[in-house]
TrEMBL record:
SUPFAM superfamilies: Protein kinase-like (PK-like)
Pfam families in UniProt: APH (PF01636)
Lineage: Eukaryota, Fungi, Dikarya, Ascomycota, Pezizomycotina
Domain Aminoglycoside phosphotransferase stretches: 43-79
Protein name (Swiss-Prot/TrEMBL): Aminoglycoside phosphotransferase domain-containing protein
Length: 111
């Protein structure tokens, strides 16, 4: 529920506080040292965690619900299409690293 609330946050500038740090699956494919902010006339960028995967979730062992999300260094505002690639299942998460066509298309949204 909290992640949906965060995704509802929108902004007209990408990144966070002047810095753009793409998801690890982006930076593994494209190792440029600096990513420039993008601006839009309208608030088209959505807030995302940037590295949502099982290793960044803490669970309440009594209720087996998510109690915390950690590792927020990749968080910020980015293209809405990136929300489709938050994978919480291991095989899907690592599959993103192997699909170079998909990666190239998503990276083009950051340029």
């Amino acid at each position: 529920e909290v992640l949906l609330q965060l995704a509802a946050l929108k902004h007209n500038v990408s990144g966070f506080n002047g810095i753009v740090i793409p998801s690890p699956w982006v930076t593994e494919y494209d190792r440029r040292p600096v990513w420039k902010q993008k601006t839009s006339k309208y608030p088209t960028f959505v807030f995302s965690h940037g590295d949502l995967a099982p290793h960044n979730l803490l669970f309440d062992t009594t209720t087996m619900t998510i109690s915390a999300v950690v590792d927020w260094e990749n968080a910020g505002f980015g293209p809405e299409e990136f929300l489709d690639y938050w994978a919480v299942e291991k095989d899907s998460y690592y599959a993103m690293y192997r699909d170079e066509t998909k990666l190239a298309r998503l990276i083009s949204l950051l340029e």
